[in-house]
């Protein structure tokens, strides 16, 4: 070989790389720079050509290659010697990285980052790029002429150099490897050492800053932890080490997921409770954003003493955790149009903050709806606190709902207790079976609803609460008002957004979807649907049955069937629970029910077993059986039955008695 040709698209790069080749090979061979503008008039048979990148092989170079050009493609790397100015830039500085083409620009960014200079934010810039941020500093690799005009400071870290592997390859192709091996390797080693020294100086600077940071962190009384966005732990303090029982060497640089997998919160100002080595800690995340390479999360841990102060917050969180996820509208299983409409209505209600009154028979999904409304509301992340008025002893309702002050009554615990309204702060309180609330608690409820403040038993201080109230009842509240059992002013306050859940009788088309859902659950997926285990007559019986206990009763029936079913044989009607067999006895039932209505059938059935009953007795029976009929309504019913010839009414003690016709009708069905 007589000549070593350096060929690159632009002249500057070509000359710069020739200088590098000159330093290494100048003693042994003539080196000539060429660029694409030049006539490529060298002799290809006695020249070795170094191409600055593979992309150059096209057009006239491609035809040279086809004619047998002897060439090497250079791998290029950042020139270590000129990066000191770059190392002086403060952390997170934003710069334009300028090069001649998109590909080489991205390559350069990658190489700088790989060198460890990854604390600077590089924005690519090359001729023809669509958009780029207007920045004051540009870094270029030997292309200062391409830097956009507005840039104030240009750091030229020089043309990217031919790397050591390519140089060794050239030496081998020129038959010079024995002569040059030592020189090449020592030059390489020297450059690496020089680079490491420079980067180390920078790291030393960083170390000072980080030790200052650690000193400050250690002065804080709270345990803290600072992680990068990828989870790497950067800073921790002594308080945290005391809790963890580790020293900083054991955690710095590790990933939080390995050290503290319990911590899952990643959102700003969000908290969670974690247990670390039997310590219950309240952890709050503070997200640091917009600092580029310093983006990350600081965790602040509060220990037991502080937890006491935060008890309220914690209790709210634990109650929320206890029922980890509330039902949503998506959990409601249905097929019927009626339910679709109801859900649509409930969704509209969920978007508001107004009080909702849910009325409906037992087991029709009142609580399900209340939870779904909560989950769909802006309070979804707040607590949902259910209160069942029928299960709290009357004398405790006040203190349960509103809490009490220390010493306000015998048995009151030290420090007093927060009530359920306070627990529900920021969320929803669900007052179930509100029809069972005593007149006294109704009075207090009314005050809370009006004033949105609670006063603990034994205290004079009002505590403001922000809660959405949803109440539910299976009683007819209007009737309760008429009977004097429910305060009318409270009723009007509650009846802002009324919702009536539907009994299964009113949406028979949902029976099968629900039955399939429950049977699948109770058989652990073994039974896919009821057709798999029931014959036609049994299925029909399920459809005809009235389901007075609604979905809860249907669910129980499916659990029963899943237990008694044995693979291979279908169950018949007689295998169904007894109440279904007798209840679905005749379709005459449904027919009569449709014609006469359930109230009339109830009246006739009561009279069937007596020698005559007065209105007051009938009203008493209705009340005991939770049948929403007032004395007035019973009077109307008796009048109607009389006009149909089913009963005869007498004044005085005999009251109302069944006629033969009435007896015949009621004997047709089983109730
Ligand atoms: N459409 C539905 N899809 C799925 N499950 C339902 C549906 N409706 C009700 N359920 C289930 O039926 C059961 C009874 O529902 P829920 O407790 O909400 O009824 P309720 O009207 O509040 O009853 P009660 O008045 O007796 O307290 C629950 O297990 C609930 O999950």
UniProtKB/TrEMBL annotation:
<dbReference type="InterPro" id="IPR002078">
    <property type="entry name" value="Sigma_54_int"/>
</dbReference>
<keyword id="KW-0238">DNA-binding</keyword>
<dbReference type="InterPro" id="IPR035965">
    <property type="entry name" value="PAS-like_dom_sf"/>
</dbReference>
<keyword id="KW-0805">Transcription regulation</keyword>
<protein>
    <submittedName>
        <fullName>PAS domain S-box-containing protein</fullName>
    </submittedName>
</protein>
<dbReference type="InterPro" id="IPR027417">
    <property type="entry name" value="P-loop_NTPase"/>
</dbReference>
<dbReference type="Pfam" id="PF00158">
    <property type="entry name" value="Sigma54_activat"/>
</dbReference>
<dbReference type="Pfam" id="PF25601">
    <property type="entry name" value="AAA_lid_14"/>
</dbReference>
<keyword id="KW-0547">Nucleotide-binding</keyword>
<dbReference type="InterPro" id="IPR025662">
    <property type="entry name" value="Sigma_54_int_dom_ATP-bd_1"/>
</dbReference>
<dbReference type="InterPro" id="IPR058031">
    <property type="entry name" value="AAA_lid_NorR"/>
</dbReference>
<feature type="domain" description="Sigma-54 factor interaction">
    <location>
        <begin position="332"/>
        <end position="563"/>
    </location>
</feature>
<keyword id="KW-0804">Transcription</keyword>
<feature type="domain" description="PAS">
    <location>
        <begin position="209"/>
        <end position="260"/>
    </location>
</feature>
<dbReference type="GO" id="GO:0006355">
    <property type="term" value="P:regulation of DNA-templated transcription"/>
</dbReference>
<dbReference type="InterPro" id="IPR000014">
    <property type="entry name" value="PAS"/>
</dbReference>
<dbReference type="InterPro" id="IPR003593">
    <property type="entry name" value="AAA+_ATPase"/>
</dbReference>
<dbReference type="GO" id="GO:0005524">
    <property type="term" value="F:ATP binding"/>
</dbReference>
<keyword id="KW-0067">ATP-binding</keyword>
<dbReference type="InterPro" id="IPR025944">
    <property type="entry name" value="Sigma_54_int_dom_CS"/>
</dbReference>
<dbReference type="InterPro" id="IPR036388">
    <property type="entry name" value="WH-like_DNA-bd_sf"/>
</dbReference>
<dbReference type="GO" id="GO:0003677">
    <property type="term" value="F:DNA binding"/>
</dbReference>
<dbReference type="InterPro" id="IPR025943">
    <property type="entry name" value="Sigma_54_int_dom_ATP-bd_2"/>
</dbReference>
